[in-house]
Amino acid sequence: MFRDIITDVFFDLDHTLWDFEKNSALTFGKILSENRINVDLASFLEVYVPTNLAYWKLYREEKVTKEELRYQRLKITFDSLNCSVSDGDINLLAEEYIIHLSSYNHVFDGTLEILEYLKPKYSLHIITNGFQEIQEKKMKNSKIHAYFDQIIDSEMAGVKKPNPIIFKLALDKSGANVSKSLMIGDNLEADILGARAVGFHTLHFNAHKEPNHGHCEMIHELREIKSFL
């Protein structure tokens, strides 16, 4: 479908290539145990995961700061579970979470296979809303860093996806023509609608089992990219 027109492929990182939920769960298993927080991990994650997604949406919309995101997603989770954790411990957990998250390196099934397939044919890049201090660590530890020519993050751009500025910065840094550029990501609002507004072609990786939509084609595993490129 895109094979004859695309020269540059831009990926989101978390929830698209890097298996955020699996790595995050492993990180929490480690830090909750080591800090003797008396909470069942499965129950914690059941509340934390949607809370975290909701706070990332607020963060994209500039409604909370990075610090508020890191604190509130934990505070709300513990409060919902009637688990008493001091502010000092919450701040310590928030700090340790960032320190240890990038030490886990699970990627989605098919990630290395599809990057090996694409690399000889296209220029590959990352556009991520993740924090600059850990995104490159994640990529290096999971052995996918070398596949990418440009890595654009929201702190570098000063804005977050879906703001058009971050997509335009990615085009400028990569030297790509938007009419020959494809954005692949998991988030309909940030990755798909944001990129389409600038003129990118898009492909939605449905990591969250969302309903079908008419904005672009949707894939359910990364190997399906081969049928488009």
UniProtKB/TrEMBL annotation:
It comes from the Bacteria. One of its GO terms (molecular function) is 5'-nucleotidase activity. Keywords: Hydrolase. This is Putative hydrolase of the HAD superfamily. The keyword Hydrolase applies. InterPro entries: HAD-like_sf, HAD-SF_hydro_IA, HAD-SF_hydro_IA_YjjG/PynA, HAD_2, HAD_sf, PGP-like_dom2, Pyrimidine_5'-ntase_YjjG.
